[in-house]
Amino acid sequence: MKRLLPWLCFMLLVTPLHAADMAAPATRTIVLVRHGYYLPDAKADPRLAPLGVAQAQLAGARLAGLPTRFDAMYVSPVQRARDTAAVIGENFPGRRFEVVGDLAECTPPTRRTAIMAKEKPAELAACKAQFDRLFARYFKPATGSGETDLMVCHGNVIRNMVVRALGVDPQAWLEMSVGNASITRIRVEADGTFKVISVGDVGHIPPGLRTGASGDPERSLAIPALP
Asked: How many domains does the chain have?
């Protein structure tokens, strides 16, 4: 019996750790927010326009009102996305967004020939590889009791993640439209299957402040950017 005691003690210490390592897969929900409205600038990485700040404030209030907490918060390194995340973050004091390079905007292959003719093959391939990495790393089941992640990024990223989750032609992403500061939700089930809950939800933004999606009014007014 004395010889068995050290072994039993060792098993009692190791078993909880092993159980934690073998935690069952669980549901992961990914909430994707497109950045707010901005004025393009060919010479710089533009910041949000005041209209975009207002959109981000509305998105932040909507997210803060959800009956869940975010286990992780990620943001694209591009300035307009970081500006949007900063405004949204005001609703989550003490929390910080982690910058993820693969959330940056780029153009992956599309079945629209006019777009493909304007893009460089190497850049199209690099963007596809980037989105491959993003999807493989983050769009997978959680462990334990489940998780909810927030990503503030770009229209191309969001649309490409949606078609991947749906399992349809990956080059069909340009056939949908998501507005500025819209909210998209994708659920990854414990078994690895996907459920697209919503795409481009702008219910939190009044019609007169909506931009960036097909059918939204074009903003011709020169709205100054943030200082």
From this structure: 1
